[in-house]
Design a protein that fits this description.
alpha+beta; Aminopeptidase; five-stranded mixed β-sheet; 5 strands
């Protein structure tokens, strides 16, 4: 084997070994920090663009009309006010997914037709397209569910946009069942 071919072979083998090691380092699921705001905004913007692309009725804001910074500010306010939490999937310093949840605030009116419960609610969940299929969404869900359990919640709810069948299937696969269905008629 010539030196050039051997060097190329060794370099390729080394790159393959390094790639394998990078893959062995698991993506870290960690709590949101104030320094993560811009990464969270980008994650939410990608989620918004994806969901808007599924909306045949064009009622969900397109990326050009979506204020991701303002949306994330409101999300952070809701999470703080309702004993919630945001977790990020951090792959070597790069945010590749996020989940936000809060503890549902029941009112007296809510308890008129149902028994009092304490439930967590998933507000947002997104895993970047190139990172799907690596159980990151599952790990984000598990972290949030653990937060809810520790806070005394007995259940967890999530709303799912009907055309987002991949998300609906994911939620079913991790143990969620359909409970409420909202129907819409254009007048």
């Amino acid at each position: 084997m010539s030196n050039a071919v051997f060097a190329s072979f060794n370099q390729a083998g080394s790159e393959d070994r390094n790639r394998g090691k990078e893959r062995l380092m698991p993506t870290e699921i960690r709590q949101y920090r104030d320094t993560d705001e811009s990464a969270l905004v980008e994650c939410i913007k990608e989620l918004q663009a994806y969901v808007a692309s599924l909306d045949d009725l064009q009622r969900i804001r397109l990326p050009a009309d979506f204020d991701g910074d303002r949306y994330v500010q409101r999300l952070l306010e809701k999470v703080i006010a309702q004993n919630g939490v945001i977790y990020l999937a951090d792959d070597g310093g790069k945010v590749v997914g996020c989940i936000a949840g809060a503890i549902s605030q029941r009112t007296e009116d809510d308890d008129l037709d149902g028994y009092p419960t304490k439930d967590g609610k998933i507000l947002e969940l997104h895993v970047k397209l190139g990172q799907r299929g690596q159980h990151i969404g599952l790990r984000l869900m598990q972290a949030l569910e653990q937060h809810f359990r520790a806070a005394g919640c007995i259940g967890c709810t999530v709303d799912c946009f009907a055309p987002n069948v991949d998300a609906h299937d994911f939620y079913h696969n991790v143990g969620y069942a359909d409970r409420d269905i909202t129907l819409l008629k254009i007048l």
